[in-house]
Amino acid sequence: MLTMYGIPNCDTVKKAKKWLASADIKYTFHDYKKLGVPRGIIEASIAASGIDTVLNKRGTTYRKLSDEEKSIVDAQNEDNSAVLDLLCEHSSLIKRPLLVKQSSDTGQVIIVGFNDSAYQEFLYGA
After folding, report:
1. Catalytic hit among 4, 5, 6, 10
2. CB 28 within 8 A of CB 6
3. Using an 8 Å Cβ cutoff, are 1 and 28 in contact?
4. Pairing label, strands 107-112, 2-6
5. DSSP 3-state assignment of 25?
6. Nearest-CA neighbor of 29 among 20, 42, 40?
7. Cβ–Cβ under 8 Å, residues 116 and 19
8. Catalytic status, residue 88
9. Rg (alpha carbons) of the chain, rounded to whole number
10. Which strand ranges, in their side-by-side order, compose the sheet holding 2-6?
11. Could you tell me if 65 and 55 are in contact, meaning their C-beta atoms sit under 8 angstroms apart?
12. Residue 126 pLDDT
């Protein structure tokens, strides 16, 4: 089972959706602006890719954070529940998309962002 977490109007999400459609790969889309992001998915994304990869510091959401909130983020303590709380509260702080593959063989595997060759390897192992 494949699930894409993202925001529909994000250009990177649009590219990823187009790539999956052209490869005729079926997936479920989870709009995390409307539905939020499950805390477990955020934790697994950070565990798989690291906080620097998951955290989107380039967007307006990060720039609009208070100094106190930025200090929480900048501490980058992956075990810090305050960082996870902030990412849950401000889902736009999460890089997009998150592509989650769930299988009985490999368990849950997550890729953050979109890159043609990374998707190719992620989905086909090639």
Report:
1. 10
2. no
3. yes
4. unpaired
5. coil
6. 20
7. yes
8. no
9. 15
10. 28-31, 2-6, 98-103, 107-112
11. no
12. 54
Residue 76 DSSP SS3 = coil
Measure the CA–CA gap between 94 and 108, rounded to whole angstroms.
18
Q: Do the Cβ atoms of 13 and 4 come closer than 8 Å?
A: yes
Q: What span, in angstroms and rounded, lies between the C-alpha atoms of 101 and 110?
A: 6
- Dihedral sign for Cα 62, 34, 7, 75, please: positive
Angle (nearest 5°) at CA 118 between 114 and 124: 120
- pTM equals 0.88
Distance from C-alpha of 51 to C-alpha of 86, rounded to nearest angstrom: 13
| pLDDT tens digits along 46-59 | 988 988 899 998 88
Tell which residue, 99, 96, 93, 125, has the closest CA to residue 111: 99
- Residue-level pLDDT at 79: 54
